Each structure stands twice: as C-alpha cells, then as structure tokens.
Predict the structure.
Amino acid sequence: MARIEPDGNDVLVHFMNDTAGTHINAGTAGSAGNFTDYGSPIFGATGPLGDAIYIPSSYLVNARNGSGGANNVLVTPHVSLSGWVLMRRATNYAAEIFNKQYFLNGWSSPFLTFGFQTHSSNDGQCDLYITLNGTLQTQVRTPAAFPMPIGKWCHIGGTWDGTTVRFYVNGSLSASSNFAGTIDYGTAGNRGQWYVGGIPGSGTNQDSPVIVQDIRVANIARPQSYFANIYYNGVSVNG
C-alpha cells in the first residue's frame, strides 16, 4: 500500500492520520485550509494508509461529530473531491461523508456546494451533489445497491469540469450527469465549511457511520486514471 503524493493541483489535503484538535492542510491553500474538530470524532482508527478518523454515528441529536474549516477556500471553475471511506452500516437517512456546506452554521437550501452523502434508502447507495448558480442540482447517484460494501474500504471521487459531474467508486466511473452553470460557494462572510462527518453548526446532525482517510480537493477535474491509480495503490487493505 502506498499513498499517492499530493501535487500542485491539490488545494486541500487532509490525511486524517493525526490526533484530535487542529489538522494541518497539506495542500496549496496552506493554513487557510486547516480543519478543526467539533463534537467527538475519534482518531487512530485503522485505515489503508495508517491512522484514520472515525465518525461515531447518531441521527438528529445535538452532538455533531466531525472536522472542518477552510470556509473561504473556493475551488473554481473546476473541482475534484475524493477520499477513502469505510461504511460501517447502511443508513435510512441522508448522512454526510465529506462536503462543502453552503451556509455558515445553517442547513437550508441549497445545503451543499459540493460533496457526498449516503442515500436514505438503507441500501448502501451514495449521492454526489453540486450547487450551480444558487440551485442544488439533482443528485448523481450510484446505480447499484451497496457500491461501497459494508465493512470494506472504498475510494470515492467526484469531479466537475464545467459541464459534467462524474462519480467514481474504486477507480471506475459509477455515474455521471450533465448540468449547466457555475459552481456556487455562496456569499463572503456566510460561507460554510469544507468538512468530514456531521453537519457543522446549526441544522440536523446526519453523521455518517464511516471511517475516513486522505481527503483531497483539487482545482482540476481529475481523470478516471487518477482515481484508479489511488485505488490500486491501496486495494490490498481489504485482503
């Protein structure tokens, strides 16, 4: 197993292999991309590339567990978001994995600028969302049940190239949709965080029952070969 080193296009890089507190961004945004914990995420879980962050999951409660920040890091016009995820169970609610919240300390439409949620059907499907010109677009959903098998590490990636949203699972294209518009990060002073885990600030909790590692946000739409390279360098973690 080997980590693919970040490159000059990686704006945010969080390995999530350190201890609780403030997490130093290894991407080009520097300290503006640091994350800070909220609630009670647990560090030191075993990941494909060392330690990882574990999100204790509960639904619609006050204790939100996660880590986030970098509110004003705007990755545009193109963007890629990716990371390693282990689903501990399927959910019957839409649960957060890693995302960019649209409003600071709020959870109202359009909710997310860009990011991943589990689908609420309890069948292990996953959704990728993007907000363009103030409107949350119809989700790009993995077409098959349990694309990320419970208890197995998977690598997921999402890209926006100005025309198409693409959703990759374990190095393969799982779903895509065409849209028109410009990715929308909201208004300065009221922008939400990039985050992993439950929704920061006010709103519902929606923690995902996940362990996560090596989250990256890049300023280009990565090709399929990029995600395949990351996956095949870490695939032996599942035996």
Notes: The radius of gyration is 16 Å. The first strand starts at residue 10 and ends at 14. The chain is about 5% helix and 40% strand.
